[in-house]
Amino acid sequence: MIPDLTNASPETREWYALSEDIRTAAVELAGPLRPMTHIETLLAIGRAIAGERERDRWQPIETAPRDGTRILLRLSNGEVFSGWGTKEAGFQKFHADGTDIGWLNPRHWQPLPSPPSGGDE
């Protein structure tokens, strides 16, 4: 529920302008809303940044989703493709731009980055 923001600070207005799922995720990271010391604020921001960096690291291919989710695939020679993984009769295959690249044996993966906000589509 969004409170009356008539006399709210710009920061409070900005907080409630965030979608509810983002506010919920922030509370899960930093704890419930309460007055914070400067160090607590910095720590909450630092944790959020660290979480984003961890998400963007290359991960072992064994942990890649095999449900058709589009991801980045890195081959042993360093080439990177956008693709997805599937399980077919117990064999794990990877596809890049419509081409089966399972035989190329990708070594690492990471989620696709978020698309840019604003601008022309």
General description of the model:
- By secondary structure, this protein is α+β, with helices and mostly antiparallel strands.
- It is 31% helix and 26% strand.
- The chain has three helices and six strands.
- The protein has a six-stranded antiparallel β-sheet, with no helix packed on it.
- The longest helix has 18 residues.
- 6% of the residues are buried.
Key phrases:
121 residues; elongated; alpha+beta; 6-stranded antiparallel sheet
Regions with pLDDT < 50 over 5+ consecutive residues?
Answer: none
Q: Quick one: how many beta strands?
A: 6
The number of helical runs is: 3
Largest sheet: 6 strands, antiparallel
Radius of gyration: 20 Å
Which range best describes the helical content: under 10%, 10-25%, 25-40%, 40-55%, 55-70% or over 70%?
25-40%
Overall pLDDT score = 76
The CA-CA distance between the termini, in Å, is 33 Å
The order of strands across the largest sheet is 1-6-2-3-4-5
* Basic shape: elongated
What is the N-to-C succession of helices and strands? HHHEEEEEE
Strand content range? 25-35%
Which class do the helix and strand fractions yield?
A: alpha+beta
